[in-house]
Amino acid sequence: MSERVPEAVVAAAADAVNATGPGGWRRAGIAGAAIGVLAAGAAAGVAVERLTVGRGMRKKARLALDATGPYGSLRGTPGRAVADDGTELYYEVDEAEAGTPVDQEGSGAPGTRRRRLFGRKSPAPVTVVFSHGYCLGQDSWHFQRDALRGLVRAVYWDQRSHGRSERGRSQAEGAPVGIDLLGRDLKAVIDAAAPEGPLVLVGHSMGGMTVMALADQYPALVRDRVAAVALIGTSSGRLAEVSFGLPVAGVNAVRRVLPGVLRALGSQAELVEKGRRATADLFAGLIKRYSFSSRDVDPAVARFAERLIESTPIDVVAEFYPAFTEHDKSGALPAFRDVPVLILAGDKDLVTPSSHSEAIADALPDAELVIVPDAGHLVMLEHPQTVTGRLADLLVRSGTVPAANVGGHGSTAQQPGR
Q1: What is the tens place of the pLDDT at every residue in 279-300?
Q2: Quick one: DSSP state of residue 197?
Q3: Which domain of life does the UniProt lineage start with (predicted)?
Q4: Does residue 115 fall inside a structural domain?
Q5: Nearest to 7 by CA among 244, 242, 240, 239
Q6: Number of domains the chain contains
């Protein structure tokens, strides 16, 4: 794949956004697909097989994968929190099964008998809160959710304007999105879904930044209630310096025109969305390039990631993108120094490179740093055994679950015969 492809894509997008003549919707759609995925972390390349397999066959394959893939099918008890601007935030709760052996202080030591003192209610359980990334949704935690169901109380939520949450009300009125706003959204979800008891905060990409923003604005909450933190494929700042794997000239071109292109695309959302649906092959190739690194990812998982990202409207992509160049929460990291922390990234992540995780680890020297070989940005889907295994270890270290209770973690490797 040529490294000049992303430059050409951005240039084409800039030319297409004002297209109004015959075929203009298609050109804008290609721009919407390319730029929308670039902002989400997919910016280049169409796989060679796209040139050798017929369009009709590829469409049938996508429909078959949509019909048979179990990914994203897990559901919990629904609830809604209300953000400070009135936006309704959708979440689901998976409760721990009765009888999970956890002592009164929550140490989770195997075989420990739980005591209840006369006149006192049982302590609130530990709740693990999962925050997803940009252009994704709570279902992106499918494998971790499957492995941990019944073992621990968990909350999965959709960030504003993503998944089943309401479109941000302040954004509908023209207000910008900031990472601090997402931190306040997380606080609203915690207040609604886990108002008492210890917390374990897990965040991927934008979700990790959301966790940092929570700590920055609510340090007392972190001090009093947070038992552990997992920061996966994320960054504490300096995202404007990320190259997306492009040569210097390509990066400069992208940085120069991308904000304006996104604004223009967002203003023609209906037109662009129509075109995105017509350019599914290009869209799938872009997602694969920047979401995964290994070659043996189950095609159904790759299609699942594609569905998650393509479900994010282009105007939402445009609204959120500027927040990342302004994001800087390095000053919030010391709030996590007194709790177990897992920092994990893929070694070939082109969106939030592993060097950003290493920078977080420099600020938290007692944290566990895991760099996963042959892994891209969606490492929790690409290498679920590794991610869930390290997360399970974190839960054990923090006393959230007994070691003996953590079982299999799933796999996305393509199975023989599939």
Answers
A1: 555 556 667 778 999 888 888 8
A2: S
A3: Bacteria
A4: no
A5: 244
A6: 1
**pLDDT (tens digit per residue) in 182-228:** 999 999 999 999 999 999 999 999 999 999 999 999 999 999 999 99
Token pair recorded at residue 399: 């006393």
SS3 278: helix
Whole-prediction pTM: 0.78
Residue 328, helix vs strand vs coil? strand
The phi, psi pair for 64, rounded to 5°, reads -65, -40
Q: 254, 3 in Cβ contact below 8 A?
A: no
Report the distance separating Cα 184 and Cα 179, nearest Å. 9
Give Cβ neighbours of residue 45 (< 8 Å, ≥ 6 apart).
1, 5, 285, 286, 288, 289
205: left (phi over 0), alpha (psi -120 to 50) or beta: left
**Residue 103 corresponds to which tokens in the numbers above?**
């002592």
Q: Is 5 in contact with 247 (CB distance < 8 Å)?
A: no
Q: Compute the distance between CA of residue 226 and CA of residue 6 in angstroms, rounded to an integer.
A: 41
For residue 362, give both structure tokens.
Answer: 């420099």
**Beta strands 88-94; 153-157: pairing state:** antiparallel
C-beta atoms surrounding 341 within 10 Å: 23
For residue 394, tell me if it sits in a domain: yes
Query: Which domain covers residue 382, as residue numbers?
Result: 77-96+123-406
Q: Would 296 be classed as within a structural domain? A: yes
Does residue 117 fall inside a structural domain? no
Specify the 3-state DSSP secondary structure of 92.
strand
Nearest to 350 by CA among 208, 235, 202: 235
CATH at residue 208:
3.40.50.1820
